[in-house]
């Protein structure tokens, strides 16, 4: 009966994952390997293709002027001296804003997923906030892995493939921001998790009882323990020949924290460097006093 | 609570961040 309960939990979290995350790993890998019947993604590999691809980039969340009128320079950056703000500089900032817009939407998706974890909404509300504040960027990075291969990443719900070399070529600090995620993802992808494994792993990350400032750790650890058992069983079933996969996966949680710390520092640096950079209030909330 | 107003709101209802 205990194993049956753990399997039921696994199914429940997998269903919640499918409901809340629009681009699954199965779909992303199919796109990357050209196995969907659909049109191949639009490839962005230089400034020209970025400009063309801007029309496709899905910016449905941030209510910025430039998203409705992609040809116009964004109002938020109009105060930047024109001599300093060349065409590709504006493009880079607009692209950065699109990434923000997708991140805000991702926070909403992760929040809804967290709410579907049995027992999560019964935790102290302040602890729910803390778990999300510390968990969402880690989750976003994990969710990027299925979209990436060594050469680039899918963006805009799989409609666009952006090359790693192009991302690397962006001016500082943009150009440095994605490389650690590629390095992590290429290694993470060798574990060959499926979407069901991913769902459980995400729940384990959210239910981390060691986040700073938690008021009531015990119930969080209890919930996490159950999900961990479910994950362990799930991995034994889905990867019977992969020895120590459970342990290898848990080790990834340490790498993730370092990536998030560096990511937040890069954003803070960017905020200082780009005079009029607009950082969405929700992302500000999450990153303020994070690490 | 004030520091994480939007996260609180997202947790308590389905408000889209764009409306906040």
Spell out the helices and strands of chain A N to C: HHEHHHHEEEHHHHHHH
| Helix/strand class of chain B | mainly alpha
> Mind describing the biggest β-sheet of chain B?
none
Kindly state the percentage of residues in helix of chain B. Answer: 40-55%
Radius of gyration of chain A: 20 Å
The strand line-up of the biggest sheet of chain A is 1-4-3-2
Shape of chain B: elongated
Number of helices of chain A: 13
Query: How many extended strands of chain A?
Result: 4
Report the oligomer: heterodimer
The low-pLDDT segments of chain B are none
Overall mean pLDDT of chain B: 77
Helical proportion of chain A, percent range: 55-70%
Beta-strand content of chain B = under 5%
Shape of chain A: globular
Structural account:
The complex is a heterodimer of chains A (291) and B (20). Chain A has 291 residues and is mostly helical. Chain A has 13 helices and four strands. Helices cover 61% and strands 4% of the residues of chain A. In chain A, strands 1-4-3-2 form a four-stranded mixed beta sheet. Chain A starts with a helix and ends with a helix. With 20 residues, chain B is mainly alpha-helical. Chain B is 40% helix and 0% strand. Chain B has one helix spanning 5-12. Chain A binds chain B through residues 60-63, 104-105, 107-108, 111-112, 115, 121, 125-126, 128-129, 132-133, 280-282, 285-286, 288, and chain B through 1, 3-8, 10-12, 14, 16-18, 20.
């Amino acid at each position: 009966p205990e194993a049956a309960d753990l399997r039921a939990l696994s199914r429940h979290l997998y269903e919640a994952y499918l409901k809340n995350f629009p681009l699954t790993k199965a779909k992303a890998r199919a796109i990357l390997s050209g196995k969907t019947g659909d049109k191949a993604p639009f490839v962005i590999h230089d400034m020209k293709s970025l400009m063309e691809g801007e029309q496709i980039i899905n910016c449905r969340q941030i209510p910025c002027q430039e998203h409705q009128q992609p040809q116009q320079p964004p109002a938020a950056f109009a105060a930047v001296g024109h001599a300093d703000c060349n065409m590709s500089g504006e493009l880079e900032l607009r692209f950065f804003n699109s990434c923000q817009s997708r991140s805000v939407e991702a926070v909403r998706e992760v929040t809804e997923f967290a709410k579907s974890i049995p027992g999560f909404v019964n935790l102290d509300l302040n602890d729910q906030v803390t778990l999300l504040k510390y968990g969402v960027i880690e989750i976003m990075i994990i969710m990027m892995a299925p979209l990436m291969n060594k050469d680039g990443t899918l963006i805009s719900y799989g409609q666009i493939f952006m090359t790693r070399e192009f991302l690397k070529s962006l001016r500082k600090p943009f150009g440095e921001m994605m490389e650690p995620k590629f390095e992590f993802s290429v290694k993470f992808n060798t574990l060959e998790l499926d979407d069901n494994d991913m769902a459980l792993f995400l729940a384990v990350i959210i239910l981390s009882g060691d986040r700073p400032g938690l008021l009531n750790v015990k119930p969080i650890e209890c919930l996490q323990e159950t999900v961990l058992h479910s994950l362990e069983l799930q991995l034994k079933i889905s990867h019977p020949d992969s020895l120590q996969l459970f342990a290898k996966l848990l080790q990834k949680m340490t790498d993730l924290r370092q990536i998030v710390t560096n990511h937040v520092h890069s954003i803070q640096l960017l905020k200082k460097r780009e005079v009029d950079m607009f950082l969405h209030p929700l992302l500000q909330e999450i990153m303020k006093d994070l690490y | 609570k004030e520091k994480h107003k939007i996260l609180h709101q997202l947790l308590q209802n389905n408000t889209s961040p764009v409306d906040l």
